[in-house]
Amino acid sequence: MVDKRNKKNIFWETGVKHGGLLVVYIISAIIINVAVIAGNDYLARATDTFIAGEAVDFKSLFVPITVLIVVGTIMTYIKSVSGNNYSAKVQRDVKGKIVSRLVHLPYKYYDEKGTGSIMTKLVSDINEVGRFFSEVMPELIIDLAIVVTVTVYLLNMDVWLVLVLYATYPLLLYAADVLSKRLTSVVKKRRNSIDMRTQVAFDAIQGIEVVRSYNLENAMQKKINYYIDDVAEQGCKSTKITSMGYVLRHTMNTIPVVLCYMFALYETIQGRMTTGDMLAFSILLKRIVWPLGNIVFCVNDIRELNVALNRVQEIYAQEIEESGTHTYSKQELSNIAVKWDNVTFSYDGERDVLRGMSFEIKAGQTVAFAGGSGEGKSTVFKLLCGFYRKNGGDYSLFGHSFEDWEIGAARECFSYVSQNVFLFPQTIWENVAFGKVEASKEEVIEACKGANIHEFIMGLPNGYDTMVGERGVRLSGGERQRLSIARAFLKDAPILLLDEPTAAVDAGTEELLQEAIERISVGKTVIIIAHRLSTIQNADRIFVVDKGVVAEAGTHNELLASDGIYSVMHGEEVAGYEET
Question: Beta-carbon neighbour count of residue 399 at 10 Å?
């Protein structure tokens, strides 16, 4: 969804911000060309004087030409510095705004777009944006400055020469427009294929264990090769169109030169131009012909780069996460931690995952959500943290509507421990400290002690400076879980969300994790997603989720006595244990 509050174009916004440098760049480029033209004029007048048989005063030429050279040199330096600074600052601001935008986009955006598309926009497309500001736009400005200043001079010299010079360019513009439209279509397809190639490669790397264990190497390679071939094919098409453009540019630049030389010679023979004017015209003709053709094909480059510009702008135009203004304060926390009243939610707008869910969790309670797969338990956690927003009903957090909370402050209320732990490819120290960025060394160590992981860490050669590897692959599942608990310990939020962190570990590790969870749960509101009913028997309240609603609620014993869904699930679980 596009953010209606953010209609500004990111490139226009940043371009205007640093417009002073661009103005200096344009003025210096114009001055350089005026200096060149003025120098040519001096030489033309001296040539006419010489041909007329009069003496040429070289001393009178030396001073103005020297001044023009000095001015041109200084302006060239100023043009280079201002142009490079403008390009660098615009690129910096664009990248900064895009990264800032990305971290505030809704969770839904990442679900819909996929890693491949986002990474391509962040790397390849932003590099193309950089090329626009560092190469294409400065080149276009210089060419325009040359064309305007030289054309004005030539008009004063001979209007008919200018008409002959420009006569062939309408055809060039038409041909370039046709090529440009074809090129834009090819570039769009190529960018989409790059997105898919990046996504498949990313999936293959992230899922390397599955790929290897199921011998999917060849299948993944075929998928990647398919998109590589498609990117190459679109690249070949793009190259053919671009090559046609270069041939056309060369041909169309040659024709005006030949015609103009012939016409200038004719005008000189007829006495309507002096020899000096013809000399000046010959020098300036070489200077203007290439920029004229280049301007036309700069339009091609801009259209091609516009694909990348639009893809980057698409990120900037996205609606950011909704957020209120209420902030987190332990002193203001109410006795009701979470309250839902008839909450509904759908991922796709068609199938409701939650169909009017209602429940209340008191501060300090330990509650659990139980139910079959796909009934909405994980969705509850996503809505609790504000990853997605409800479609209907009411959701209050510590007595305030969730919509009133500043989203960062709301998330400060939660510590999340998942069974699928994500660790960054950094040190143990850094991964734990993400729970509290400004944490001291003593705080990190205390958190690790509370999570039953300190002794293990100290037994490693590099201790807390040990690198955990990509997604923590150098650690076991139980070790990763304990680091996740240490991170939650450090955050010390009033509500603890547990997505059954002991579900996939051995008995010995489970005991360590349970001890750690008991420590971290003291004085907290604990909300658990239960995959094994045996782990939630002591919960203060259990909510049984069925078809997107809370179908049953009560303690373990109360639910068993009711002989409902929970009782059936419990019986099936016990039977499963007996069979094993």
Answer: 13
Separation of alpha carbons 116 and 386, rounded Å: 24
Tell me the CATH architecture of domain 10-316: Up-down Bundle (1.20)
**What architecture (CATH level 2) is domain 326-413+536-580?**
3-Layer(aba) Sandwich (3.40)
Quote the percentage of the chain above a pLDDT of 90: 13
Q: Where are the domains of the chain?
A: 10-316, 326-413+536-580
Q: What is the pLDDT of residues 490-543, one digit of tens each?
A: 888 899 888 876 665 556 667 777 777 788 888 889 998 887 787 788 889 999
Count of beta carbons in the 10 Å neighbourhood of residue 449: 16
Pair type for strands 495-499 and 414-418 = parallel
CA 320 to CA 316: how far, in whole Å?
9
- Neighbouring C-alpha atoms within 13 Å toward the C-beta of 14: 20
Asked whether 281 and 273 are in contact (CB, 8 A), the reply is: yes
As a whole number of angstroms, the distance between CA 103 and CA 397 comes to 23
For residue 184, the model assigns a pLDDT of 63
- In the numeric block, the tokens 């339009």 are attached to 299
Whole-angstrom distance, CA of residue 263 vs CA of residue 239: 36
The mean pLDDT value of the chain amounts to: 79
Q: How far is CA 520 from CA 242, 326, 526, in A?
A: 63, 26, 10
Q: How far apart are CA 130 and CA 90, in angstroms?
A: 9
Where do runs of H (alpha helix) occur along 337-403? 377-384
What is the rounded CA–CA span in Å between residue 447 and residue 487? 7
CA nearest neighbour of 238 among 195, 289, 300, 283: 300
Distance CA 401, CA 338 (A): 10
